[in-house]
Specification:
single chain, 273 residues, mainly alpha, MetI-like fold
């Protein structure tokens, strides 16, 4: 095959892939619009009591009101930033500890045998089951909230890193060792780059788990945060604010996930995200 024909076929494959991506994105947009239309219809027709499902207009009005006047003395931006601060600090600690530990545990059966019972013990537990113990030791300030988010993110990230190391072909490791790579150099030049796409994919899962724990983390002695705002509004049956907060949390989650997917695409463009 001539080079011009190869380039032509490659361009056709890329164009076809981009066309398919736009098609599926269009389906996603249409599905959201359909749900919105159904939501508007059932509320405008009085099919569902607005106490349980406020209309889109009422949720929008709640958003405008909180945006202009804040909620319980704090602006909407402050609530979001406080939650993001707790989340990112927890994720930072989870990445700093889980990634190197996972690389070592994935390469050493002894290390894996030491940490596995503890990870498998706490991983399935609901966050609220051990949050009381965390508060007992760390108090009711941000430290306990960050610790809860950290524990939520740590286990799935660690397990993903360990599994990624175990997937590396043995020939690749042996080849690197035959060329003189060993110790830290082997981890830095061979194991970590080989695991990076899977590490980022595991990070997507960890962010989702930690983010889902945000409301639980802000249940105790919090006076700010988007999760706390949703929880507090539910106590007063302000379901318009509850729905508004949930939509904002969902939008933030989509932005975070899209950012990780973008990085995965740059690191491993052969993966179809």
């Amino acid at each position: 095959m001539h080079l011009s024909e190869y380039n032509k076929n490659t361009d056709l494959k890329i164009a076809k892939r981009q066309k398919g991506r736009w098609f599926y994105q269009l389906i996603s947009v249409v599905s959201v619009l359909v749900v919105f239309i159904i939501w508007q219809t059932v509320t405008s027709k009085g099919m569902i009591n607005e106490v349980f499902l406020p209309s889109p207009r009422k949720v929008w009005d709640a958003f405008v009101d909180v945006l202009q006047n804040g909620y319980k003395g704090e602006s909407l931006l402050t609530h979001i930033l406080v939650s993001m601060k707790r989340l990112f600090i927890a994720l930072g600690f989870a990445i700093a500890i889980a990634v190197p530990l996972g690389l070592v545990a994935g390469s050493s059966k002894i290390v894996r045998a030491i940490i596995d019972p503890f990870i498998e013990f706490y991983r399935p537990l609901p966050p609220l089951a051990y949050y009381t113990l965390i508060v007992l030791y760390l108090g009711i300030e941000d430290q306990s909230k960050i610790m809860l988010l950290f524990l939520g993110a740590f286990a799935p990230l660690l397990i993903g890193v360990i599994f990624s190391v175990q997937k590396i072909p043995a020939d690749r490791i042996k080849g690197a060792k035959s060329l003189g790579a060993s110790g830290v150099r082997l981890f830095a030049k061979v194991i970590f780059p080989s695991c990076l796409p899977d590490i980022l994919t595991s990070l997507r899962t960890s962010i989702g788990v930690a983010y889902a724990t945000l409301v639980a983390a802000e249940m105790v002695a919090a006076v700010s945060g988007i999760g706390w705002m949703v929880l507090d509004a539910s106590k007063f049956l302000r379901n318009d604010i509850v729905y508004m907060g949930v939509i904002i949390m969902g939008a933030i989650a989509i932005v975070l996930d899209s950012f990780i997917r973008f990085i995965i695409k740059r690191v491993s463009p052969w993966i179809d995200q």
